[in-house]
Amino acid sequence: MSVARRVPDLGALELLLAVVRLGSVGRAAAELGVTQPAASARIRSMERQLGVALLERSPRGSRPTEAGTLVAGWAQQVLDAAQALDAGIGALRERRDGRLRVVASMTVAEYLMPSWLVALHETHPGTAVTLRTANSAAVAEVVRGGDADLGFVEGTRTPAGLNGTVVAADRLVVAVAPRHRWARRRGGVTGAELAATPLILREEGSGTREVLDRALAAYGGTAPPALQLGSTTALKAAAVSGAGPVVVSELAVADELAGGRLVAVPVPELDLRRPLRAVWPAGQRPAGPARDLLALTRRGQPAGPSQQ
């Protein structure tokens, strides 16, 4: 039989100590906010559980038996330990609630996270946030390893071992410098033409690369890249300089397209839309600031998690 089944619960021990201190089951019941019959029944149940009488009852009140005095002394130690445990857990909760570790893909970190973190600061100004950036594959590894409270990835599916929910929608854009020959193609380019052209691309493992590779799989996949770069800023700079077509998030090139430094090239045959997801370890739920940040990101998004 386990110790938990042999030892009275904390509420019963607290009641016993109150009776010993106040000399009356009735006064102890009133102090603890229960009825006298309920308190008497609980004392009797504890006596049956322990197999000893704990109180001597008389018209003048109740006082502990010899065994009751011993049990009350041990009960005080148990309650003191429980209070220490509660204080320790409270300190851990305060520490957890005072910090937030986030790891996000480049697109989310650069173009969505700043406004989310500003909103979080307005509602929880005492929260210290640490933000790391990585490609989507690395984000998944960090979250699975327990080194982040919440992650944000790009791509078509929730990574293995994680739960996730869609927090934003995005679309990849093929863009070129204004002097590139594709800039004058009103009908855009075909999927086969895009697949055969050396492009300026993110590295493998990024959400951008995953979506593009999947979209071009029917055309034999992507050609060897003209350039493979690890940052969105570098991708855009290379495309603006005329190094070749770039495939990048629509969020990332909005200013360049508006300013005419890049031109969007349609690819009517391809669906380059992609969801952006918040992710966390499977079997867990975001708590504290991670839960609050997740709520902020999902404002205006469709309800319900996506597990695809």
Automatic annotation (TrEMBL):
Q: Does the keyword Transcription regulation apply?
A: yes
Which ranges carry the HTH lysR-type domain? 8-65
Q: Which InterPro entries match?
A: LysR_HTH_N, LysR_subst-bd, WH-like_DNA-bd_sf, WH_DNA-bd_sf
Q: Which Gene3D superfamilies match?
A: Periplasmic binding protein-like II, Winged helix-like DNA-binding domain superfamily/Winged helix DNA-binding domain
Q: Is the Transcription regulation keyword given for this protein?
A: yes
The record's keywords, sorted A to Z, are: DNA-binding, Transcription, Transcription regulation
The Gene Ontology terms for molecular function here are: DNA-binding transcription factor activity; transcription cis-regulatory region binding
Highest taxon listed in the record's lineage: Bacteria
SUPFAM superfamilies given for it?
Periplasmic binding protein-like II, Winged helix' DNA-binding domain
Query: Which CDD domains does the record associate with it?
Result: PBP2_CysL_like
Q: Identify its protein family.
A: Belongs to the LysR transcriptional regulatory family.
Q: Which PANTHER family match?
A: HTH-TYPE TRANSCRIPTIONAL REGULATOR, HTH-TYPE TRANSCRIPTIONAL REGULATOR CYSL
Name of the protein in question: Putative HTH-type transcriptional regulator
Q: Which organism is it from?
A: Actinomadura macrotermitis
